[in-house]
Amino acid sequence: MQKLLTLGAAMAAMALSGTAFADEVWSTEIGDVVYETDLENGQAVLSYPLGEDSEWRGRAFFPGLAGQYEGRTSYDGFWMDPGSDDGESGCMTEMRDPETGNTSDHWGRVKLVFVDQDFPGTWVALRGQCFAEPDDMLVGRPVVADGVE
């Protein structure tokens, strides 16, 4: 009984903390997008694959999304990735990762719109390069365990 109470208290503490624990994953045409963490400044950090054979992942930052699991609407943020070695040009300015401090000239604006406002929910993302208006669309559908809604 004591172990059950301790486990229950630990789970309640994690739920109240607002930290994501990478428990949200969405399937997209480019691969799985993962809710990585919440930053102290209220930004949620999502990661996405950079390519089929790449071990690297890009990151997207969404102010106001951290800890929001109900009533999600739309969130303006930015994405960044380490770039490529194939001579692909980046932006004229660099963006700084608010968590790691790393900088990259491969970044842009992104708008994340939740179709389903409560967890787990489908979203549509519009992504743009550098300061350009986001116009490249990606749909994310939640990955859920069998029998879990």
Radius of gyration: 17 Å
Strand content: 35-45%
**What's the end-to-end separation, in Å?**
29 Å
Average of per-residue pLDDT values: 82
Count of runs of 4 or more consecutive helical residues: 1
Categorize the overall geometry: globular
Structural class label: mainly beta
**Order of helical and strand elements:** HEEEEEEEEEE
Largest sheet: 8 strands, antiparallel, barrel
The domain tally reads: 1
Strand arrangement in the largest pleated sheet: 1-2-3-4-5-8-9-10
By DSSP, the count of extended strands is: 10
- Catalogue the unreliable spans: 1-21
Fraction of helical residues: 10-25%
What does this structure look like?
The chain contains 1 helix and 10 strands; from the N terminus they run H-E-E-E-E-E-E-E-E-E-E. The protein is globular. By secondary structure, the protein is mostly beta strands. The protein is 11% helix and 40% strand. The chain has one domain (21-142).
